[in-house]
User: Fold these one by one.
Assistant:
Number 1:
Amino acid sequence: MSLLVKICGLSTRETLQTALDAGADMVGFVFFPPSPRHVSLETGRDLGRQVKKRALKVALTVDADDATLDNIMDALSPDILQLHGQESVARVRDIKQKFGRPVMKAVPVASAGDLAVLPGYAAVADRILFDARAPKDATRPGGLGTPFDWHLLENLALDLPYMVSGGLQPQNLAEAVRITRAGGVDISSGVESAPGVKDPELIKAFIRAARATRELSVR
Ligand SMILES: O=C(O)c1ccccc1N[C@@H]1O[C@H](COP(=O)(O)O)[C@@H](O)[C@H]1O
């Protein structure tokens, strides 16, 4: 099975085009104003049109309310909703029912205890995204360029597709996939020259590196 690659935090036509041409499976748009990658609804609409089914469009939100999600549905028509906040199991179920799109729930990881939430989310989400737990004083719950201890997922038995993120780079993604056996990788900071500024060469290098790890992936 081919490793899924998601390039997250795209905010310009040029870098979106680079990600599409390089073969990204998923392209992520951040709708979270404190993030340096935040896009307005208008920009999301414009970038969404550019995708033209060449990749899955992922809307990243953080504890968004229904009105916000309604607006994002209208503007981007995402293929996947990435819930990257503290959404409860009930809220994830509710969003999936109300908006009728597959949901990828981000689970923050810093220690083995963080995996206790998995049975609950696995019952309602379509995919799990393991990301490094952000420090308490962080301005956002992800997109910080820091990895977590991938060995925490070494013996994971999860009956659901999952991806890994947090501090990935072209140089370390093979190791992350080898240890976690994730079916996909998600990156933002690692393909940037500054927060929010995507670097086309790094996007291409990351996707090239991901394609080279194909045989390591199992889920
Ligand atoms: O990218 C952001 O700004 C962001 C903001 C709020 C929540 C999540 C965010 N990004 C996600 O964080 C991870 C890790 O990113 P990085 O490669 O370590 O920078 C990734 O899943 C992004 O989708």
Number 2:
Amino acid sequence: MPSPRVSRAANNSANPMNKLEFMSLLTNRTNASDPVSVRHRTSDSPVHRKDSFNATSSTASQQQQQQQQQLPEEDCMKLNPSFLDIALSSLLAVDLWLTKKMGVCAREGSSWGSARPLMKLVEISGHGIPWIAGSLYCLYKSDSSAGREVILNLLFALLLDLVLVGIVKGIVKRRRPVHNRMDMFATFSVDKYSFPSGHATRAAMVSRFMLNHLVLAVPVRILVMLWAILVSLSRVMLGRHNVTDVAFGFFMGHMQYGLIEYFWLSPSTLPALFRM
Ligand SMILES: CC(C)=CCC/C(C)=C/CC/C(C)=C/CC/C(C)=C/COP(=O)(O)O
């Protein structure tokens, strides 16, 4: 009489059941009253699996198919995960843990809840509307062609940022952290998603833009860098984003700046725009 472990290993080699997937720990659906988890515990038991397979292997594979159809894919975990699966799951776990730890201004009652109004001011300083409105105003006021060229490119960068972030958010569709309170002003529908942080992309891109195209004194340059870091940090502290949303957003903002430099609009590349 083989032990359950031996019999399971033997079954696994020729058995479609070796692809059997378990409920993800992330969803935490182990409640006895939950029909989904009850169904899984019963059918995942080695005794049950061995018996049902020996009795009718076709019934077992039908059952497995039914289970897989009933479960959303993200609720499953492979029995033999690859190195990449493990690395990604670990990163996700650290991300969620750090996000929760750092969300100190997520609510008024949070540990740094009294700093929430200040953090919301920082949030507004990185919002798209003041930056676009400010650029339009400067464009209107500017009387030098060099100044107009820089501001026009900044405006182009801000609009490109809105489009690219919207596209990535729409594709990835990652929900904002559970502790976030959706009380941001002026948002698009994709802003219910959190990956990547639009504030972080804008802060990284605009700060690089300013440091490279404006003549600034050293203390102001340091302030610009600190502002970009503070805007990004505030996204996690306010509970708006996970750490990875902000880290990727910051990286994406730097890449976007590279794109703007590459496609720089100048009187020679786009004369019609500069004749206005
Ligand atoms: C101001 C003028 C003259 C025109 C406005 C142009 C316009 C339609 C701008 C849209 C700005 C806007 C609503 C941006 C969204 C900013 C936002 C809430 C991003 C989300 O950031 P995240 O860090 O939470 O991802």
